[in-house]
Amino acid sequence: MILTIDVGNTNVVLGCVEDGVVVSRSRLATNTSDLPNDYAMKMRQSFAFDSIDYHEFEGAILSSVVPQVNRAIRSAVRKLTGLECIIVGAGIKTGVNVKIDDPGTLAGDLITGTVGALSMYKPPIIIVDMGTATTIVAVDKDGAYIGGAIIPGVNLSFEALSQGTSLLPNISIEAPRKCIATNTVDSMKSGAVFGTAAMIDGMIERMEAELGQPATVIATGGLSGGIIPYCKHEIKHEPDLLLKGLAILYQKNAKPKKQNR
Questions:
Q1: Among 73, 81, 111, 261, which one is most buried in terms of CB atoms within 10 A?
Q2: Which of 109, 140, 186, 240 is catalytic?
């Protein structure tokens, strides 16, 4: 069983992957002030809740967009399991041709999602990842990562809207009964859900035009389940995309085990 760790700006997602299947997943809050012991305690509690024996892990891999917490999480994994995390970053074997201006700047979550997507679908592929930020990236017909777009996430956008205005409240991100809303809260919800869905549809159309053909569209990320059903394009929801991609990257980069003679 492989421990896969996806560190985002809001949450740390822990995945337990066995034979390519995600058998357990849990979330911890990303906290840059947490010490290794803090993360170790939270991980142990999470594993216990899911009846996961952390001594059974044979390997661990970490993808992070918050470098400040990497050392603490790696140390926490070492304390619990005795394992050293493989870090997704420059120099890691991915099997993906990266065609951007500076491949060394590509974030670990983007290449991880690409690896996961290519393991399940034929290219071209468009991947929508909805978290603190929304990323929409494209993989061409040859399976090469060719770039994409970064957009403020829907929660982040509407928190900023509420904080930057006097009369607009904080809202929950859920669809109102209709797009043409008749009160302030529902008007904000309409913009958050229907507006974001329309933006995603529009970006898909523009990217498919640049790709020169229709693409398989995949959505992942903690906020995708509440937005994607309102898109007009056919979009495949893969909530465990990054955890599966991490497990594949672990297999590509793990050192062979020494056999006892």
A1: 73
A2: 109
